Amino acid sequence: MKAWMVLAVALLLGGCGARTLDYTPSAIDPALGRASIEQVLRGLPGKRGPDKVFVTPDYFGYARGPLYAEPAANGETPKAAGKSVQVQVYYKDVSKVDLIEKNRGRTIVLVRNAKGRNLYKAVVTDLALAHRFADAVMQFKR
Questions:
Q1: CB proximity list for 90: less than 8 A, separation 6 or greater
Q2: How would you class 62 by CB atoms within 10 Å of its CB: exposed for 0-12, middle for 13-18, buried for 19 or more?
Q3: pTM of the full predicted structure?
Q4: Element (H, E) at 83
Q5: What is the DSSP letter of 61?
Q6: Which of 105, 92, 101, 87 has its CA nearest to residue 41?
Q7: Whether residue 71 has pLDDT greater than 70
Q8: What CA–CA distance (Å, rounded) separates 119 from 67?
Q9: Which of the four pLDDT bands, split at 50, 70 and 90, describes residue 104?
Q10: pLDDT: is 142 or 139 the higher one?
Q11: Which domains does the chain have, with CATH numbers?
């Protein structure tokens, strides 16, 4: 009985694992890099994405909320509840981009500064997109 309990716990914990991918960013076309960053910032399908996405030579970020909502087709600004959120990550602050492979084909993208603090975190379902995002962020950092 005790052996089965240990085996069950080991299997449960083993299925929740994640591993950091060894990936070295490479050069990428600036237009493809900007498009990749925008695609990651828009988020997973099914989640409410940001109202605005910013990719500039100095930073990337997004904004969401009543201040940034697009006008409706009839020209009226939607009455969104909640507060506005704006996130900006400056390339000069970025030290590295970590890619962590999770279950169900998801990859966590962590943009970190020199002290190891997370500046941005995203979950993507396409590993190639995660690689392009890492390539773009590290290239724009230069």
A1: 58, 59
A2: buried
A3: 0.76
A4: none
A5: E
A6: 87
A7: no
A8: 23
A9: confident
A10: 139
A11: 18-141 (2.30.29)
